[in-house]
Design brief:
heterodimer, A: about 425 residues, alpha/beta, Rossmann fold, N-(1-d-carboxylethyl)-l-norvaline Dehydrogenase, domain 2, 2 domains, eight-stranded mixed beta sheet, three-stranded antiparallel beta sheet, B: alpha/beta, Peroxisomal Thiolase, Chain A, domain 1, nine-stranded mixed beta sheet, 11 strands, about 35% helix
Chain lengths: ~425, ~425
């Protein structure tokens, strides 16, 4: 068992997570190998790492290289190999084979995958590899999102797991959330259920209206469909499919995407990475913003929706009157306010229902609160219980809306409200 | 004398890393959070508050909103009719609000004053914000038509030190590094998750561009949105407060002494006036000496911690010798010997100061006093300097034009 990490290999160092995570490690003064398919790609990752840290001096801790010429040399030295390569099981397993052959016996290997089944990754590897393998799921971009879900497999040495947990928490100063080895871990499981529900609703009500209704004022940094444009529709689909295959689905909590998502992907409308083709949003050359029409997969001009309850809630938030904002939503009887309440109720009930399944039961809602806050910048579920009037009110609301009442919510303590940890989640936008 | 003590019952600081403009929040939302956070932290009955004072520099410019005292009344229905007032002295705005609160308490006019220091600065781009800050100098003479006037004026302070005593830039880089390092332990510090080290602070590059003279980007404090709410109380009120909550009165910090001086507003005149003085800014030195005298303390070595006004690394360099940690012009020695670091003989800015924690101009003086309170009550968490009993703060407005020094301690010490 190693007692310190001095040298790290980042595999997939040209990607967003690889380069920015590698940059964070370099900021700590560690020696970091940025490896990619080509040296040039690794260098592009280094540039990102420098821009993230806003300092050229961190590049002095980074060595760039490619898999073919430099992996073996770097493996002789590395204490931790963090794999951030493309979300493809075959590609990952191929690179693990090489790592297994050349890594130091006590070097730790972790994957940042969020959409592949963790146990499959080291399937045919040596006992030593399996013992030193775990998942470290850093949220993107790692410099801004502090959450890291850490998960062991059945073969991970508990000492390795505890060592990495401590290293990431104390050396990297991340918010570590221990999660169980389940699809999507905690954060993606909850967020993507919501995203999926919103894509379904968008088919009926429109993209612009859904992002207006479930906008930042409801406790998130970005509107949900704009967030999916940032994630990429292809990634979204992969995560949804993985969750559909590996989790329990029912009418209330479904991971079945509407068909138009497939059409978007076929059309190459993947979001921000295909700016020319668009995603849910499309910016025309002159700067005019268009929105996807899910019925035709064409783009339509903005209609600039305006609902009195939304505007009232935003105004209350503008003045720092957060609870009054949610009173405005709760007391409005229009269908659109009901949609907002449905989404918030799904968020609360699904989050509480997963206690014990995605995180340890004894931790209550704490881990889920942390990952939604530090991984997505969403108001955590327990805060939303508070905003909707407290536990009793929420239980009655869920009953009225015919949701399954999660046991952990019934058994939970009344969440405390602290303005210091509440206001930042609600934007008057 | 003891009966005239003004006690600090505690308070609340907003997270200085937040951008309230991006959140599309009104400046009154900042005040609201500071106030409600403080009620939670200090456990005050709002109906006990007799007056509310607000420290703010330039909300008319940044937010097109003046008359901030009036917004306090909106915070609770019981405040209608409450006397309120807003105070302004550039970056020392909330320090002068504290001085006025002390005078009102000492005169027996009010026994509990709620004080909010607030500034929302991210409403405009850095060039426009820099120009607004120029109003803290003599605008026509020192800022009009000049891009980023303040880094230039404090660059000149570095030049003056260099001329009189010699000043190696490396010491300024070390000051920046120490403040950023301390800020990492402060959960409300603006830069707590930023990258910084001595090497970066001491290197000129794309991300650490020179601004003027010895001032680079890393030598500057931050543009910050933030508010701090404090409670200042008479001895009678504090005794009652402590009794009801089963607190030991001896553990509640109070303001032991203060110094308040004003120098000519133009920086060039300050420097010309001090040409024959061993201190570069003698009027600032006088505020510190007055505070020592009123506190009946001999020198800086009777202090455990200093929270100083490091709007630029040069102003902290100045504070080191002006507080008396070294002879004039020898601040570098205290830096070299590690005196001002967390584990040093007299740590400066455990909070991270204005460079690390942030500088919402009108809130900074109040933030310093709240940090003094935290250090003395042992509630500073990861940036606690163990065993702190006495703290000095120095809040300056403009180019060290308005100077306010407070000494805060808890009872009883040896004098």
């Amino acid at each position: 068992m190693i007692d310190a990490i001095k040298s790290v290999i980042v595999l997939g160092a040209s990607g967003a997570v690889g380069s920015l995570l590698g940059g964070l490690l370099a900021q700590q003064g560690l020696k970091i190998y940025f490896l990619s398919r080509t040296y040039e790609k690794a260098m592009s990752g280094l540039k990102r790492a420098v821009a993230q840290g806003r300092s050229e001096v961190i590049s002095r801790n980074i060595v760039c290289g490619d898999y073919e010429h430099h992996l073996e040399i770097a493996l002789n030295e590395a204490d931790w190999i963090v794999e951030c390569v493309t979300e493809n099981l075959e590609i990952k397993q191929k690179i693990y084979e090489k790592i297994d052959l050349h890594k130091k016996p006590d070097a730790i290997v972790s994957s940042t995958t969020s959409s592949l089944p963790l146990s499959k990754l080291p399937e045919v590897r040596s006992e030593n590899f399996k013992k030193h393998f775990l998942s470290t799921h850093f949220y993107n971009p790692p410099g801004k999102m502090l959450a890291c879900e850490i998960t062991s497999t059945q073969d991970t040495d508990p000492e390795v797991y505890n060592f990495m947990k401590s290293f990431i928490e104390h050396k990297l100063r991340r918010v570590v959330i221990p999660t169980k080895n389940v699809a999507g871990f905690a954060g993606n499981r909850i967020a993507f259920l919501l995203f999926n529900q919103i894509t379904v609703l968008a088919e009926k009500y429109g993209v612009e209206i859904l992002d207006y209704l479930i906008g930042p004022y409801t406790g998130r940094i970005m509107p949900p469909l704009a967030t999916l444009d940032l994630v990429g529709l292809d990634i979204h689909k992969a995560i949804i499919e993985n969750l559909h295959e590996h989790t329990h689905n029912d009418a209330q909590y479904s991971f079945v995407s509407p068909d138009y998502i497939n059409t978007m992907i076929q059309n190459g409308c993947l979001g921000n990475k295909t700016t020319d083709k668009g995603g849910f949003y499309k910016k025309l050359a002159g700067g005019k913003l268009m929105f996807l029409d899910p019925a035709t997969c064409d783009y339509v001009p903005a209609i600039e929706p305006h609902f009195a309850f939304v505007e009232k809630a935003k105004h209350k938030i503008h003045l720092g009157l957060y609870k009054e904002a949610f009173d405005a939503i709760k007391t409005d009887l229009c269908r659109e306010a009901e949609i907002v309440m449905d989404i918030l109720c799904t968020y609360i009930s699904y989050s509480y229902s997963l206690i014990g399944e995605v995180t340890e039961k004894k931790c209550g809602i704490d881990g889920i609160d942390k990952v939604m806050s530090y991984g997505f910048n969403w108001a955590p579920p327990s805060l939303m219980v508070n905003m909707l009037g407290g536990k009793q009110c929420v239980l009655e609301l869920l009953k009225e809306k015919k949701y399954d009442i999660p046991e952990p919510l019934i058994n939970s303590l009344e969440p405390e409200f602290h303005i210091s940890s509440a206001g930042k989640y609600f934007l008057a936008r | 004398m003891d009966d005239n003590r003004v006690y600090i019952l505690g308070g609340y600081q907003t997270d200085f890393a937040r951008n309230w403009h991006k959140e599309n929040k009104h400046i009154s939302a900042l005040m609201r959070e500071a106030y409600y956070g403080s009620i939670e932290a200090v456990n005050i009955d709002p109906s006990d508050i007799k007056a509310a004072f607000v420290g703010n520099f330039a909300s008319e410019l940044y937010c097109m909103q003046g008359h901030l005292g009036a917004f306090f009344v909106d915070l609770d229905s019981c405040f209608t009719g409450l006397p309120t007032c807003r105070f302004e002295a550039a970056c020392a705005s909330s320090a002068v609000a504290i001085l006025s609160a002390m005078a009102h308490i000492n005169a027996g006019i009010y026994d509990l004053i709620c004080l909010i220091g607030v500034e929302q600065m991210k409403t405009v781009d850095s060039a426009k914000g820099g120009s607004f800050l120029g109003a803290a100098a003599w605008y026509e003479n020192e800022a009009d038509g000049i891009e980023f006037p303040f880094p230039k004026l404090f660059g000149k302070l570095g030049d003056e030190y260099d001329k009189r005593y010699g000043l190696d830039d490396a010491y300024l880089a070390k000051i920046a590094d120490i403040n950023y390092t301390n800020a990492r332990n402060n959960p409300n510090a603006q830069t707590r998750n930023w990258f910084m080290n001595y090497e970066h602070a001491n290197t000129v590059g794309k991300y650490n561009a020179p601004i003027y003279g010895k001032i680079k980007v890393t030598d500057c404090s931050q543009i910050t949105d933030g508010a701090v709410c404090l409670y200042l109380a008479s001895k009678d009120f504090t005794e009652k407060y402590a009794r009801q909550r089963h607190f030991d009165l001896n553990n509640i910090p109070y303001i032991l002494g203060w110094g308040h001086t004003t120098a000519p507003i133009e920086f060039a005149k300050k420097i010309a006036d001090s040409a024959k003085n061993e201190y570069v800014l003698p009027v600032t030195r006088q505020a510190i000496l007055d505070a020592y005298k009123r506190s009946n303390i001999k020198d800086c070595w009777d202090l455990d911690v200093i929270e100083t006004h490091d709007c630029f690394t040069t102003s902290e360099y100045m504070a080191i010798d002006h507080f008396g940690l070294t002879k004039p012009g020898e601040s570098w020695k205290a830096i070299d010997e590690g005196v001002i670091q967390m584990e040093g003989k007299l740590p400066i800015n455990p909070s991270g100061g204005l460079i690390g924690c942030g500088h919402p101009v009108g809130a900074t003086g109040a933030r310093q006093i709240l940090d003094a309170y935290k250090q003395i009550t042992g509630t500073a968490g990861d940036y606690q300097v163990n065993g702190t009993k006495r703290v000095a703060t120095l809040n300056i407005g403009g180019t060290a034009t308005t100077n306010v020094c407070f000494i805060v301690e808890k009872c009883p010490l040896h004098h």
